[in-house]
Amino acid sequence: MIPENKIVKRVAVYGRVSTARQEEEETIKTQLVATREFAAEKAYTIIQEYIDEGWSGTILARPQLDQLRADASKGLWDAVLIYDPDRLARRYFFQELVMDELREQGIETLFVTVAPSKNHEDQLMYGVRGVFAEYERMKITERFRLGRVRKAKEGHIVTSRSAYGYKLITRKGKLGDPDFVQTHYEIDETEARVVSMIFSWIADDRLTTRQVVKRLQKEGILPRRSKRGVWSTSTLNTLLRNKTYIGEAHYASSYAVVPLRPRVKEGYKKVKKTSRKMRPEEEWIKIPTPPLLSEDLFERTQKQLKINYELAQRNRKNEYLLSGKIKCVCGNSRAGEGPQHGKHLYYRCTARVHAYPLPPECQERGINARIADGLVWSKVAEFMSSPELITKQAERWMDSRTTKATNTAIDIEPLQKEVAKLEKQEARYVNAYGEGVLSLEKLRELTQPIKEQIASLKGQIAKAEIASAEQIPSQVLTKKEVKEFAERAATKLSNLSFESKRAIVMDMLDKVVGTQEALHVYGHISLKNHVKYETDDRDCGPAQCGEVDIV
Ligand SMILES: [Zn+2]
To answer: How far, in Å, is the centroid of ligand 1 from the Cα of 108?
Structure first.
């Protein structure tokens, strides 16, 4: 704990602004100026400043805040000075979490706008203030949302940006005024022409969305807002399904979610919910709009899009042994590309797909899929049928047999499952705490027994593993037998179906990184049974002793 009346001399300053927009630059300047002035007044020395720009206060994982928390134990400063509790976090619980953590390191958190708490009553007041501020914010957000839902239900446009093809006419005057105008859409003639063109390119010319992107670029038709200045297929896919064009806009048809498989796996995200999920259609709020296309053209386009999708699926059925595992040296994955671009199948760097239709940054060329598949597979087969490996397998199998016979070995798999289950449960509680559903105390109370259970189970697993490792092999195969096994394995492996080969690749390989010149294969060997070595010259059937696992 922090001793009372501790003299603060050295401080770290923390600042945050929620958006990186120009006008917000003033906000951070004002914040910093006020904070520095405050420090000077109190005769604090600012040792370091940690500033997160463009970060929402609802997210706690911010790079500079993390750095500050990591530096807290280094004894560089005695206190953290922040303009306002809001700058630390929007949620009171998050504020408390960080302040608690700093307090444990003997570091005080000071605010320019809030006097430091001298006693418990003060601390309580601070807490109450934080909870109320949060409550107020939620109330405002909720009121705002309900207002939008009500307006939408009355049939009025509630978006702040119009759909492409329309101009947004915002509300003028007050309800009841003679010249009152409700917010609505008006057709934007120039954009509307582009919309009908795009639909007709799909429905009549049978183009794919990618080909539409290319044609738009060739004709110099720019999207309304885009950093890259080109249309993206995902924008087009949304546009092509937007019923606003046949007179029916929708409100609340989708909602924001955290993406399941983010394309960029980086540590920090400024916005968590970057993906959108559709609501069931009966929950959509329909708003009438001036139609811009005929229903016939819209329907024909939907049909063609479905055909395009099915064709793309069929093309994707080419057999790519390494898909999902092969990467480019630039770090992007490589994806199989069908024979429509020539007679060969290639693994191409997806930097190209992401940049399309602009030229990609990565200049690596495609890798011939048949050649790469063949090379990698022969390596895998060679490895799996090597005599050394087979000897090891046989020894291991013997081991397991003697172990099973002599000792009622503990099966560790159910233990591991139980651990995973408990860890999930713990994560759920931590999430609930993060959402503000649980207090820190309640969190500790709930997770403590889980932590103990996990530790005990892990102890049991470790013991069981040591016990099985101590078993001594009782029988070993002869060299001749090993050689025979190896030959059989090699034949078997070369005759496997594509599906079986693919299953082995998926299981054994971590990644294949390659250029046209060289492929690097990274793998681990799993304990699953992939190949059954059948034998008739030993006194047991294949099901008993013939299963050799890859170790
Ligand atoms: Zn690349």
So the answer is: 48
